[in-house]
Fold this sequence. Notes:
Strand order of the largest sheet: 2-1-5-3-4
Order of helices and strands: EEHEEEHEHEHEHEHEHEEH
Helix content: 25-40%
Mean pLDDT: 89
Number of strands: 12
Largest sheet: 5 strands, mixed
Number of domains: 3
Amino acid sequence: xxxxxxxxxxxxxxxxxxxxxxxxxxxxxxxxxxxxxxxxxxxxxxxxxxxxxxxxxxxxxxxxxxxxxxxxxxxxxxxxxxxxxxxxxxxxxxxxxxxxxxxxxxxxxxxxxxxxxxxxxxxxxxxxxxxxxxxxxxxxxxxxxxxxxxxxxxxxxxxxxxxxxxxxxxxxxxxxxxxxxxxxxxxxxxxxxxxxxxxxxxxxxxxxxxxxxxxxxxxxxxxxxxxxxxxxxxxxxxxxxxxxxxxxxxx
Length: 251
């Protein structure tokens, strides 16, 4: 029998049973159990973990636990505001791309608005999300902690808030996305790139009044929708500025 002492820090406590939160506690582990296995047995998805210390030394997820071990588990360093000494995450992502599960239908178009390639289909089964995330190196966004425990999902984010705009702010802050945002680059519906078109190419895809008031248009070649800088664009621009941080204007 292996008994180890665990201590989880910061927001990782949200995943634990209430009596185990914000304190060290002993837990009986299976013989040969790894750090990853026991962390997830206790309710914390491995994608939420940035650093594991066993007896004061940094280890990876596959580290086997032995009797008497003391395990400290830390979340993303952005939330802790400390300098990491060793990253235990494997396979760093070169491009930030997402796949959102059925619970996040309002968040997906907002991420596309910010310029982030985001797959979403409310009929995706968990197995498809796992496969697409692995094949296309996408970060899984979900409110289902069990989905993040799937073995091949290496990058994920458990979204805590409920309203889409609050979810957007949460993801921006947790993943430090402000510097990578490229607003108004993707179609909110299709996730396809937008391109500029001449006013005389718009035809009947925009109301006559819009053609009279505006000269610049973009379109999506998948759904053929046309977009212009109207009042809706202005509201979305204000949202992007508030989330990503608008550049300071000279005094």
